[in-house]
Amino acid sequence: MNLKYESFSFTPILGWSSSRYELFDKCRRQYYYNYYSKHVKDIPTYKIKKLKALTSVPLEIGNVIHDVMEAFLRRLQKSDSDIDEKKFFEYAKQKANEYFSHKTFIEIYYNQMEKIDEESADNKMAECLTNFINSPTYNWLFMKAINNRDNWMIEPGGYGETRLDGLKAYCKMDFLFPVDDYIYILDWKTGKKNEFKHRNQLTGYAAAASNNFDISWKVIFPKIVYLHPEFEELEIELKENDINDFFRKVKEQTDEMYSLCSDVKNNIPLPIDNFPKTPSTNICKYCNFQELCFPEINHHSGDSVEI
Q1: Which of 88, 101, 172, 269 is most exposed by smallest CB count within 10 Å?
Q2: Cα(119)–Cα(152) distance, rounded to whole angstroms?
Q3: 302 confidence band (pLDDT: 50, 70, 90)
């Protein structure tokens, strides 16, 4: 089974993704700042770019683990010998130091904490990797999946553009690979389990893979692999109604986002006043752009924090 992603010519029209609609649904104003920053007036471009670039400790832990898992899988493609666990954990810590020392954290910028807790972050990453090494998935990759490792797709480049029932969409998968006559998709998670959200995400992966590779969704098995606080898997058994319902949901959500465009084809938004702020102050606490909505808020002017 030879797998090759379909490529698409650039079009400016917005593309659906689960993360894009989640932000749209959570706070229209944050959505505007994030996706339509070039249309923001009366705020310097450098300021918008700086706020967009803010990251968070949980996000960077996830980024490090994804990079470590990618490196592990690419190494496994070349050699099926046991990994050196010491070097495995040292590589993760090296990546963490690299990421954490060159980025500006929302927790520091908005004075939610004085400094990043290096030990706590390192411990969580170590727990994630330990859980993976001790998991049945780790053994399965060595014993079964490796037999067709030439056809593995590990963190493919780009944004995962695809078509869902004819609509432009983005579904970027962490790891896709064939075993016998089936296709498996794994998505690594280091955060909290959200079964409803993640089931929708898995359905999207299956629909995208079916379209991209022109194969039946019946032979596609996507699963979420939770690495913290303990190893757990979420796998769904798809039915035809699941796919149809998913397509319908994507169409409805895309139309909602289209409704706030003055020019749908070119993805030009309506004026910012059409994108109201969320009434939930709890959401605001985790927003990169909170100082734009609340100018009185205190923030740190530094550009990065070292751990």
Answers
A1: 101
A2: 34
A3: very low
Say if residue 12 is preceded by a cis peptide, omega within 30 of 0. no
Name the residue ranges covered by the structural domains of the chain.
21-134+264-307, 143-259
Distance between CA atoms of residues 297 and 249, nearest Å: 37
pLDDT at position 214 is: 87
Three-point CA angle 117, 121, 125, nearest 5°: 170
Token readout for 19 is 């993360």
pLDDT tens by residue, 156-185: 878 889 999 999 999 999 999 999 999 999
Identity of the residue numbered 28: R
The 3-state secondary structure of the chain reads CCCCCCCCCCCCCCCECHHHHHHHHHCHHHHHHHHCHHHCCCCCHHHHHHHHCCECHHHHHHHHHHHHHHHHHHHHHHCCCCCCHHHHHHHHHHHHHHHHCCCCEHHHHCCCCCCCCHHHHHHHHHHHHHHHHCCHHHHHHHHCHHHHHHHCEECCCCCCEEEECCEEEECCCCEEEEECCEEEEEEEECCCCCHHHHHHHHHHHHHHHHHHHCCCHHHEEEEEEECCCCCEEEECCCCHHHHHHHHHHHHHHHHHHHCCEEECCCCEECCHHHCCCCCCHHHHCCCCCHHHHCCCCCCCCCCCCCC
Total Cβ atoms within 10 A of residue 119: 9
Whether 293 and 40 have beta carbons less than 8 Å apart is answered as no
Does residue 305 contact residue 115 with C-beta atoms inside 8 Å? yes
Closest alpha carbon to 85 in 99, 97, 68: 68
Residue with tokens 């985790």: 286
Show the tokens assigned to 182.
């089936």
- 227: number of CA atoms within 13 Å, CB side? 25
Q: Report pTM.
A: 0.91
What pLDDT is attached to residue 298?
67
